Amino acid sequence: MPYTVVRGIRVHHLTEGQGPDVIMIHGFLENLAVWHLGLAPIVRDEVRLTTYDLRGHGRSDLSSRGYTPDALAADLEALMDGLGIGRAVVVGRSFGADVALHAAVRSPDRVAGLVAIEPALVGGLSRPGDEAWGGWRYWGGLLAEAGVAVPAERRTDLPFLLEQAVMTSAFDGPFPAGPRKRERLLRLIRETALVAESGEVFGLTRDVVRGIRQPVLLVYGGRSPFLASLDFLRGALRRSRTLIVPDAEHLTPWDRARLIGDEILRFVRRLGRGRAGAGGRPPMNPALVEAPGR
């Protein structure tokens, strides 16, 4: 299995296909396998696709610290250096989308464009610890569907919710035997700074977000718990377009994979045409794109 040493840890990654570089960043407590259940097979025929396990996730090394979105964006930049990738379109989902936005700010010359699927913490809009954070409804709802009762006093206790999620099938998705090694994930929650650091936005203030110049494709479910973040991003990002999937909640890489994969490819093609004819600044269609229902 391929590994690259990144800022003192081994990072597990896979690269396949040929064409413009696209890098995909998975979400919280996931691993690179989630992309290969749906989106990766759709896009890899037209791009050189790199997927990787975030620090502490999947087969990448565990560390005690280094889990802020900004630190993980620094990991991404170092991984690109190690793999010889000068510039790429970065696709992130949920927490991975927050990391991608930090990467766009940290390394504007390295991030050609962003596909942000369900980012949740951008611009300090809300974060774990805030009563209004949409994640409470999402995590609590999934646990309830799995038959796990969440006491009222633990409704905003993120370590408790995460541990309960890991110990149930609530977040296993389509993996027939569970997507992750539960003991390792419990170590990640209990023995590292992941929970404390993951909600830190550092310099990604609302004003900084408004300064992002790269083209951005925003993708959200119509029933997402993070639509407040979408409302802000759609107004703040000058070169963005939005895909809404009306019948979906917090989109995963296997929800409506064909629809989202085709839209990612259109986005990458548009960037290529823009570099060829407009000095690297392709025009973006600001219109809201609403996907048809099932």
Question: Brief overview, please?
Answer:
The protein has 294 residues and is an alpha/beta fold. The protein is built from eleven helices and nine strands.
**Approximate strand percentage:** 15-25%
Radius of gyration: 18 Å
What is the domain tally? Answer: 1
Computed structural class: alpha/beta
In one word, what is the shape? globular
Number of helices: 11
**Going across the major beta sheet, what is the strand order?**
1-2-4-3-5-6-7-8-9
Order of helices and strands: EEEHHEHEHEHHHHHEHEHE
Under CATH at level 1, the class stands as Alpha Beta
Distance between the termini: 38 Å
Q: What's the CATH topology name?
A: Rossmann fold
* Average pLDDT over all residues: 86
The CATH superfamily turns out to be Alpha/Beta hydrolase fold, catalytic domain
Number of E strands: 9
Low-confidence parts: 276-288, 290-294
The biggest beta sheet reads: 9 strands, mixed
Fraction of helical residues = 25-40%
Q: Which CATH architecture?
A: 3-Layer(aba) Sandwich
